[in-house]
Amino acid sequence: MLRLVADWLVYSVLRLPSGALWAEAVAFFIYDSLKILILLFAMIAGIGFLRTFLPHEKVKGWLGEKIGWGNFFASIFGAITPFCSCSSIPIFLSFIKAGIPLGITFSFLITSPLINEYLVVLMIGFFGWKIATVYVLSGMSLGIFCGILLGKMKLEVHLVEDMLPAAEPAQTKTGTRGLKSRIAFGLGEAVSIIKKLWLWILVGVGIGAFIHNYVPATTIQHIIGKTGIFSVPIATLIGVPMYGSCAAIVPIAVVLFQKGVPLGTALAFMMAVSALSLPEAVMLRRAMKLPLIAIFFGITTIGIIFTGYLINALQPFLT
After folding, report:
1. 14 found inside a domain
2. How many helices (H) and strands (E) in the chain?
3. What is the value of pTM for the model shown?
4. Burial, 230: exposed, middle or buried (Cβ in 10 Å; 0-12, 13-18, 19+)?
5. Boundaries of domain holding 101
6. Does any domain span residue 3?
7. Would you call 114 exposed, middle or buried from its count of C-beta atoms within 10 A (0-12, 13-18, 19+)?
8. Which tens digit of pLDDT belongs to each residue from 218-271?
């Protein structure tokens, strides 16, 4: 529906030329901006409503005692949500506002764009069930272990102060709020956060729209195909600044693999594009200080590179 609205605005209202790359970039920008803003509002309002029944101190205390299991369940939740990296950010921010430990929220943020049900179907169709299974297990392990590591580093000091969970009103803790009051709390929190984030979202999506429409896949194939033993880190570093959903990147990974690029290298590129992107970094800047973004991207990038080399070593048993 949102895609139809975006196309209608671009090609019927604005009458931009159909087939032009810049017109497609505008349509992509409108579609992704609407999708992320609506998702952000709905998720934060919904989680804000639920928080009136369970104050964030209780949530934080319950999950804080279950580091490891909390990361596992966050990774499972990420795997069943069909979001790209930028679309996962609203839920990530809602988790932060709810007082869930930072490392656990990172497990969700890493896993969510890497794995989802339609990706699994595509992976089985293109690569077979063995490679698809290894990819899913690798993506979840990456989210769990990177989340645990980031959580142990005590990086909360690098969160922007006005994005931290606020103290709950007394009536929230005692459970005496009425339904209208609870709904109003959730809506108010959603409006408050969107006011802080909307500009960063539009800038991030604008960068993503440009990359999505102007970076040719053939250039990527040429570079990765000629880098030998260093293909895994180079493929990962090429993928990090790019933008796209895992499902959109699967065909590129398939072509890379068919042209002789090692399996782990092709999958590392796909993971980097899906889990990390320049637009995502721009959006996260509103909630995180630069050192935290750098640490998050650095640890996740290293994890993807390690995973790529591991899958390359296992390739004879998978193909």
Report:
1. no
2. 16, 0
3. 0.74
4. exposed
5. 20-162+173-318
6. no
7. buried
8. 677 777 777 778 889 998 998 887 776 666 677 778 878 877 889 999 899 888
